[in-house]
Amino acid sequence: DAGVTQSPTHLIKTRGQQVTLRCSPKSGHDTVSWYQQALGQGPQFIFQYYEEEERQRGNFPDRFSGHQFPNYSSELNVNALLLGDSALYLCASSGWAGGWQPQHFGDGTRLSIL
Amino acid sequence: TQLLEQSPQFLSIQEGENLTVYCNSSSVFSSLQWYRQEPGEGPVLLVTVVTGGEVKKLKRLTFQFGDARKDSSLHITAAQTGDTGLYLCAGVSGTASKLTFGTGTRLQVTL
User: Which residue of chain B comes nearest to A96, CA vs CA?
Assistant: First the structure.
């Protein structure tokens, strides 16, 4: 039973570029959340997708956008990259049962901005 | 803005010692989770506590949720080198399903 898978594992970009990160949820899960984890800090919530719609959003600018596909997989897009966007980007999946369900995390994509 | 402060930030102990990590907030959470994260990996869920005053034990790990559901603690008995990692608490509020993570406690256990 595959867990949450993310790709790529590492990525190097330069300032001003755009990036797309991908996430496949754990089998049986239909909700995907994205988090940004700066070095030495706890993860920060970016947004959550359910039924192909953004359901909740954290305090991140519009440069951060996402998408969820009919097969529940998801993408995180970041435009006009800044040096401060360098971080580990984590995807978490869960079921949706009208309340909180445990979230299972992937191993993340390490994004470095030069 | 909800904040979860963890203390200590860093902890370096020898195998066999006991330790306690604290997670404090001024906000009330409907549930609180503890995760452990190792380098190059995502956080792995250790436990969820839901009821104020609840105590859960997982082998050598004991988790407690404060009576007011604003704070939590993690106690490790007889630490082992395999306990090394970043410990994160995370709270959930009301019907929102997003996780608000704490600042993290980095634990290093040496022989």
Answer: B97
